[in-house]
């Protein structure tokens, strides 16, 4: 099985990417991040817990997670699934959204919904993340990244010209079975160590 790929670049210090091609052995206990994050399910399906809401997500769908929101995504019965995750510094993104006139102040305002099913937005998101992973040269990457993230902010805030997105509702009971959470309750490393860290 291929190891997860992590991407960081000094040209975009407020952005990180994770790519997992085979998530069958990936199992996370509920956790949170300081960053806003968005993920694209690129193959198969998985469970997605966000706060108290539980979903089953499949290829072609997006998930978004607000800063400090407890969440977990896990394989279903050992089935293969793959995904791309983008982590963005919340203060930077809040500033970008404010600069675009999408919010009255540069402080973070939660984005909704948890899951999105929209082919055009999915394709644009995957294209943006793949361009970062492909190592497009510095300024071009930074310009595309900032423009792409700004476009995503417009699409996700419900203002301006954006395609209509269909939110998926939580599954029955809105919770994952306790046995699934228990199976994934071991401590896991979310990110590889940064250079110079043990």
Automatic annotation (TrEMBL):
Location of the region described as Disordered in the Swiss-Prot/TrEMBL record: 157-176
Domain of life, source organism: Bacteria
GO biological process, one term: regulation of DNA-templated transcription
UniProt keyword terms in alphabetical order: DNA-binding
Protein's UniProt keywords contain Zinc: no
Keyword DNA-binding (UniProt): yes
UniProt-listed Pfam families: AraC_binding (PF02311)
Residue span(s) of domain AraC-type arabinose-binding/dimerisation: 28-137
GO molecular function: DNA binding
Chain intervals with Basic residues compositional bias: 159-176
Record SUPFAM superfamilies: Regulatory protein AraC
Protein name in the entry: AraC-type arabinose-binding/dimerisation domain-containing protein
Species of provenance: Crenobacter caeni
